[in-house]
Queue: 2 jobs
Job 1
Amino acid sequence: MAGPTLSDDERRTLLRQRAVSRLLSPLWVPVFTAAMRWGLGWHIVDGDRVRERFARLRAESDAPLLICANHLTMYDSFAIEWALASPGYYLGDFGALAWNTPEKANFASTWWKRVIAYLLKCVPVERGSDRKSVARVLEKIRFLLERGETALIFPEGGRSRTGRVEMESAAYGVGRLVSSLPGCRVLCIYLRGEHQETWSKSPVRGERFRVLLESFEPKTDARGLRGSVDLSRQIVAKLVEMENAWFDDRK
Amino acid sequence: MEATEIQERVVKILTPYVKDQEALASVKAETNLLEDLKVNSARLVDVVLAFEDEFDIEIADEDVDTVNTVGDCVTLIGQKL
C-alpha cells in the first residue's frame, strides 16, 4: 500500500500494546470469556466446529489472515473472538486474537473503556476524520497482518441499519488492505444471534449465536482504486451470500 | 485541459452526490466536499471512480487521501491527464 509509512515510534507503540496485552492475557481473556458464557449466558451453536476450522486456517499457512464479518451489534467483535477460539488457544497463539478498529468515540469517554480497548488489541478509528488518518489506521493493520497477527474488520464500515448486509455500504478500505498484502486470505464470518431481528446496541441475554465461516482469496484484474473497490465488493458479496445461507438454514 | 474546464466537469460529476445543493451554486476551489457540500464520505470513492471514467485516467488508492476540496480534485485530475 503506497500510502503513509509508519514511523518507528508508531511501530514500537503497536508492539508494546501487543506485549502488554499478551502479558496480561492470562487474566483478561478468561474473564471476558466467562462474562460472555456465564454472565450474559451467550452460547455459540456448534462452537467446536467453528473453532476447529479457525485453528486449521491458522495452521495451514503463514499468509496474512484478515477476518471480515457482518456487523449488527457493538459487541460483535467480542462474540466473534470468543466463537473462533478458546482462551487456552489464544494464550498459546496470541496472534490469533484479532486486532480491531473500533470507533474511538465508542470507548474514549472513560478510562476503563480505554484500558479494555488497549487490552483487546484495538486500533481506534475516528469516524468522519480526514482520509489520511484512516489510511494510517489501515497501514497499522497492514503492518500487524504482515507480522502474523490477525485482524477483524467490518467491511460495511458500521452496523447494518437494515439488519441485513448492505452491498452499497461496502467501504473500500478493506479492499485497499487486501490489495496491499499479496496472498492475503480473507476469512468471512457471518455471526448472528437467533433473537437478532435487526441491528441493536447489544445481543440479548442468553443469546444463541449461529456462525458461518468461509475463507477465500479475493482477486481482481482491476488496478488502483477500482481494484480496491472490486475486492471490497467481492468480500461484501460473500457476506451477503452467507447471510442468505444463514437464513436458509433456519427455515 | 484548462483548470476551469476540469472544475466545471468535476462539479457536474459531484452534483448527484451533493446533499447541500445551495453550496454547489457558490462552489470554489476551497469548497470542502464533505463539510461544505455534505457528500457522504462512503460515496467519495464513487465520485473518484466517476472522475476516472469521465477523464479516462487511473487514480491510485493513496490519491484518494489527498482529495478534500474541489481544488484538490482539479489538481489531481490535472496531474493525471
Job 2
Amino acid sequence: MVSETTTPALEQTEKNDQARKVILSIRDMRVWFELRRFGFGHAGYVKAVDGVSFDVHESETIAVVGESGCGKSSLMKTILGLHKPTQGKVIFDGKDLSELDTKGMHWYRSHVGYVQQDPYGALPPFMNIQRILEEPLIIGGVKDKEARLQRIHKAMDEVKMTPVEDFLQKYPHMLSGGQQQRVVIARAMIMEPKLLVADEPVSMLDASVRVEILKLLKGLQETHNLSVIYITHDLSTVSYFSERIFVMYAGNLIEKANVRQVLDNPLHPYTKALLTGTSEPDARNAETFKEIPPGEPPSLVNPPTGCRFHPRCPSFMPGICDVKFPPDFEPEPGHSAACWLYE
Amino acid sequence: MVPQAAMNALNPVIKVGEQVAEPASIHLGVDKVGAVSLVKKMFQHVGVPEDFIVRYPFELSGGMRQRVAIAMSLVTSPNLIILDEPTSALDVLTQASIFNVLKRLKAELGISFILITHDIATSSELADEVAVMYAGQIVEVSDAYHFFDKPLHPYSQKLMASVPRLHGVKEPEFISGRPPSLIALPKGCRFKDRCPFRFEKCDEDPPMFNKEGRLVRCWLYE
C-alpha cells in the first residue's frame, strides 16, 4: 500500500518538468501523534498525515487544499521541521532533513520562509517592525548593522510598505490586518528563501485586502523564482495563484493535478463536493440547495477502513471502497485520483 | 440573533440542550418536560442528532456548534433572525450545509433573516435583497437578482470584481486605498477617493437615487 502511493502521476509530472530542478521532495511521509491515557499508557495514534508523497520544483507554486483537521497544518509543520515525521523523508535541495544537525537546520531555515495564518498572532507585540525584521538577520549571521538596515528597507519596499521610515518604529497593533500580513511576508522574505510556505495567508483578511495580498505573493514568487506551498481551504483563491493542486482528506492526498484540470474536471468525489460547496456570487444560489456529502470528516485516530471518504461518498461501491485503500489512478495524464472509480 | 463565533457564544460549562432551552423558559415560561421536547424539535429543524442535548459545546464540531446556536435563536419562534457572519469561521462543506439549513428554515417556517457578512459569495446563498454598506452609509439597495447580475454603485462593482472565481477568466482586482477614517470623513461622497468614475459633483453629498426600483447613493445615477 505504501509503495503504491508514490504514483505514476508524479513520475509523469516529473517528466514534464525535467527542465526544472526538484527543490523539495516528500517521500511517504507519516506524522502520527501518540495519544496517552492519564499521561502514560499508550492509547493509539492520531494519524494526522498518513502516507503523503510529492515533489515541489523550482519556482513552482503548489496548493494544498483541504478542510480543517485534514492534516494540512501538520504536513506544513513537518516540512518546516517543527514536527519530526514518524516515518518518511523530507528532502530539501538533496539533503535529508532528519540528518541535518543544528547548523544544518540553521541553513535549512534560512532557505525556507513561513507566512503564518494569523498575522497579529505571528508578530511579537512588544517589538517594533524594525526589530521584528532584524531578528532573522541577526540569527542568520548578518553582522553589519548598516547591511541589516539596508535589507530591511529592501524587504519593506518589496511588500510595498512605503515610505519605509514611517513604519519601522511602529508596533504591530498600530497596523491594519493587511499591513501586518505584509510585515509577516517581509519577514519570511528577508533571508531570500528558495521556498515559501504560506499557511492560509489570507483567510483572516477582508475580500479586497485578500486579493491585494495574493497579488503581492504572486509578484514576489515571479520576481524571485520562489517555490511556494500555499495551504488553504478556499478553492476559489487557488485558481490564479498556483500551478498544481493537491487535495487532502483525512491525512491522505486524494487528488493531484494542474489547477485547471482540478477545477474544470474534478475526479475524486470529495473534490467534486468541495467545488459544489464553494459559493460564487449568483442570485440563483438562494433558490437551490447544495448537494453535499452528509456527515463530517472522520476521526484520525480510527479512520475508516479502505477509502477514508467512503462513509460519505455518493458513489460508494460496497465490497471495494470499504475494504481496500485506493492507490492513485491516473485516468488522464498528469491528473491522478485515489479513487476506485478510476481503476 | 446568531453570533459569529459559535464556540464563544456557547457557555462551555453548560450542556447545549439547557442552553438552547434557556430562552424558552425565560420568555415563554416553558417547564422542564416541555423544554426537552421543544429542544428536540429545534434540533430536528437544524439537523443536530437528538442525543446531543446532554453534550457540552467542546464535544461538538464547529458546524454542529453553529447549528446549536441557530437552534437557540429559533426556540422562541421568532419572525426575524439576525445572522452575524454565521459561517465565516467554518469550512466550505460545513458552510454549505449551514446554508442548506437556513434555506430550509426560510422556506418551511417563513422566517426572515438579516445576514451580515463581508463575503459577497455567501450573501448570494440566502439573500432576496442586498444592501451594501460603505463607511457608515448604505450605498446601494437592490434585489438580489439584479444586484448579482450588475451592481450599480462603483463600490459594489469593485467589491464584485474582487471575488475570486473558480472558472472565471478575469483576474480578481483589489480596491486601491483604504476606507476613510470614520472620525474625519471626506466631504461629499465617501467613496470618491477610491472611485474610478470620480467627477466634480462627487464633492457634494449624494442622496439616494432611485434607478428602476433599486436605490443607489451615487451621482452617476442622477
